[in-house]
Amino acid sequence: MNSTNIYSHLTAKERDRISFPARILLEKGMLKGDILDFGCGFGKDVEILNEKGLSVTGYDKHYFPEFPKKQFDTVICFYVLNVLLPEEQAKVLMEVSSLLKPNGKAYFAVRRDLVYVGYRTHKIHQKPTFQCNVILPYPSCFKNDNCEIYEYIPINQREISKSEDCIFCHPNKGTELITESATAFAIYDKFPVNEGHALIIPKRHCSSYFDLTFKEQSACIFMLNHVKLMLQEKFQPDGFNVGINIGDSGGQTIMHAHIHLIPRYKDDVDNPVGGIRNIIPDKGNYLL
């Protein structure tokens, strides 16, 4: 993770009233069930919404740093993405998707009034802070000259409107989603080789990994690293295999590019030497 944006938390503002995005979503009746304010800053929205009878938990990497241990019906994330670098934005999208219940929704508010993009010296703190415009591939539920609010619904819960017959373009509602970003998502393999066997899948339908754009490949590798950490914590494997099947001769059976991340455990095979070289029998142990 890029460490050049170490002062992003200084953009948090102290307020004495509810934020504009929170007021809009409250008026629209979109704040439902158990709610998480992700990147809550000093926590004023958490305080006011709880006073109004809602159930809201606050998380902020700098001000309320205890990462949530459960999932939520609704996650709100206001003006966070605008002050983050692209890889930091992707990490937030993945973390928010993992914190949603299967039928949950998240709302991302982004600024639309930014004039200067890049690093600037913060007027109060006199430290370099970053800001940028953000466009997400999610439906917009509110927009004016200053603010836009996106509604995120997990990819496996969205209504299918296209006719393509591809299980990765349209994962069904019973598919367990591990995480999702703007460009890719991860699920557990339906026929796992080992416990925790995960697939990292680009959203654009493309049969070969090599035909993906560099941005799409980068998004998949970034997610691969993120999912590895999730699997390590959940399953405590002793190792991993990473593999991509390309073409019929490469063993590809679903013609939508995807990366296999397979946890490995001590003694899950008699002799693990050679790893993925064992895709061709008797070629694994080349040390003999």
Automatic annotation (TrEMBL):
The UniProt record lists the HIT domain at 164-271
User: Where can the motif Histidine triad motif be found?
Assistant: 256-260
PROSITE patterns, alphabetized:
HIT_2 (PS51084)
Question: Which CDD domains does the entry link to?
Answer: AdoMet_MTases (cd02440)
The molecule here is called HIT domain-containing protein
